[in-house]
Amino acid sequence: MKIGIIGSGHIGDTAARLFVQAGHEVALSNSRGPQSLKERVQQLGPQARATTVEEAAAFGEVVLVAIPLKAYGSLPRAQLAGKIVIDAMNYYSQRDGELDFQGHTSSEFIARYLSGARLVKAFNTMWFKTLGEDGKPGAPLDERLVLFIAGDDAEAKQAVSRLIEQVGFAAVDTGTLAVGGKHQQPGAAVYNRPMRPPQAREVLATL
After folding, report:
1. Taking the chain, what is the end-to-end CA distance rounded to the nearest angstrom?
2. How many other CB atoms sit within 10 Å of the CB of residue 142?
3. Is 1 helix (H, G, I), strand (E, B) or coil?
4. Distances from the Cα of 145 to the Cαs of 77, 100, 190, 193, in angstroms?
5. What is residue 113's three-state secondary structure?
6. pLDDT tens column, 41-52
7. What are the structural domain ranges in the chain?
8. Residue 187: CB partners within 8 Å, gap ≥ 6?
9. Cβ(194)–Cβ(134) under 8 Å?
10. CA nearest 26: which of 10, 43, 2, 46?
11. DSSP codes, 129-188
12. What's the half-sphere exposure (Cβ side, CA atoms, 13 Å) at 24?
């Protein structure tokens, strides 16, 4: 699969490595331009390339977005229309300032901004070092750590779940962008709390 990544910080960079290791092609981008990523994509190997943000969005069948939420306005809406977009962003008021989500979760807000994109909230609840070191490809799903997903498009969630399994984790669905997006936000019961599927489902059942 071709995967575009917008944002080369801890999550974007870690996800790029995991996707390449799982056999996917990756276009990695950031706001500083392809030249800033030249050394990194050389380390990742021939399945990775450095691109502009617009090129990464156009390249990917799936596009992971991992930038500060306050920069959402820089996302290329035209290139992301119709794509499965993984929203790995979190809202931190001390970093992002006061943003008005108009009564919605941040993911609902982003889905409305990226009208036409098939948005799935994922890769946002796990510390990047856990993500980078604790995946277990090939292990039974119930023995893996969980990456939570939320979304309103069942097929898009299935596609993201497959990617999660390919990089060594288990996907657990928290629901819609409205309900699940709330469960996956910073400070929620499942946020940055490593757990396996049985425990994750028990916690979600209490919410």
Report:
1. 35
2. 11
3. coil
4. 32, 33, 12, 10
5. helix
6. 999 999 999 999
7. 2-205
8. none
9. yes
10. 2
11. HHHHH---TTS-GGGSPEEEEEES-HHHHHHHHHHHHHTT-EEEE--STTHHHHHTSTTS
12. 24
Residue carrying the six token digits 């500083």:
32
**CB-count exposure of residue 59 (10 Å: 0-12, 13-18, 19+):** buried
In SS3 terms, 28-86 reads as EECCCCHHHHHHHHHHHCCCEEECCHHHHHHHCCEEEECCCHHHHHHCCHHHHCCCEEE
Distance in angstroms (rounded) separating the CA atoms of residues 69 and 90:
6
- For 50-93, what is each residue's pLDDT tens digit? 999 999 999 999 999 999 999 999 999 999 999 999 999 999 88
Threshold 0.85, pTM exceeds: yes
Amino acid making up residue 85 = V
Q: Which CATH superfamily is domain 2-205 in?
A: NAD(P)-binding Rossmann-like Domain (3.40.50.720)
How many Cα atoms are found within 13 Å in the side-chain-facing hemisphere of 188?
A: 23
